[in-house]
Amino acid sequence: MPYLNFKGKKIYYQLKENNVASSQNKGLIFIHGSGSTSLIWQNQIDGLNLDYKLIAVDLHSHGNSDKFLISEITLDLYVNVIEKLKESLILEKMILCGHSLGGAIILSYYLKIPIDIESLILCATGARLRTSSVIFQQLKDDYKQYLNNIRQTAFHRKTPKSVIDIYREQLSKVDPKSFITTLKYVMVLILCKN
After folding, report:
1. How many Cβ atoms from other residues are within 10 Å of residue 131's Cβ?
2. What's phi and psi for 145, nearest 5 deg?
3. pLDDT 10s digit of each residue in the chain, 194 long?
4. How is residue 64 annotated by DSSP?
5. For strand 117-123 and strand 53-57, is the pairing parallel, antiparallel, or unpaired?
6. What predicted TM-score, i.e. pTM, was given to this entire model?
7. Cα dist from 33 to 8, 17, 21, whole Å
8. Terminus of the chain with fewer CB atoms < 10 Å: N or C?
9. What is the CATH number of the domain that holds 43?
10. What domain count does the chain have?
């Protein structure tokens, strides 16, 4: 499993090299949302055959990446991880794809370092991320019940059960306090930057 060493901790990522010509070192980096992992992008990693390196990251405190203290989490930290990954893989140009929190990260990256970016792909995200107070209450009071209700809060009614089960399994491995804090903190950061 490939890891990026960042501030003495390991950040896991998936890498598929495809048909990348040696003269072109381009990457398509997929960034998941709060509580998720790089596995949310598995169909894209497996199914796309582009002349780009395909990379899906487990953000810190998610999936196979090391945990960071809640007090260490900032939007700049997320951006710095992506920048360090780009340098580590010697990527000259990138397409960044982000879901929810991942979208906020790639927008922030673009505002900081636009020269590296060919394009952005924003999935269920925006400059302002809002989460219902009901969801926060469920997360706080009964995480297991929140996971049981995930179909209603996070998925379209036609989403296959197998997709929801995989997501639920990933989310069950995330510390609820970390998940809540990340959601609240990132929402505050984004609102303050606007």
Report:
1. 16
2. -65, -40
3. 799 999 999 999 999 987 655 546 899 999 998 888 999 999 999 999 888 999 999 998 888 999 888 778 788 899 999 999 999 999 999 999 999 889 989 999 999 999 989 999 999 886 666 677 777 787 788 888 888 888 877 788 898 898 888 888 888 887 777 777 667 655 544 444 44
4. T
5. unpaired
6. 0.80
7. 23, 23, 31
8. C
9. 3.40.50.1820
10. 1
Q: Where are the beta strands (DSSP E) in 44-191?
A: 53-57, 93-99, 117-123
Residue 15 has a CB neighbour count (10 Å cut-off) of: 14
Domain that includes residue 125, residue range = 3-193
CA-wise closest residue to 150 among 169, 177, 130, 175? 169
Cα separation, 71 vs 16, whole angstroms: 33
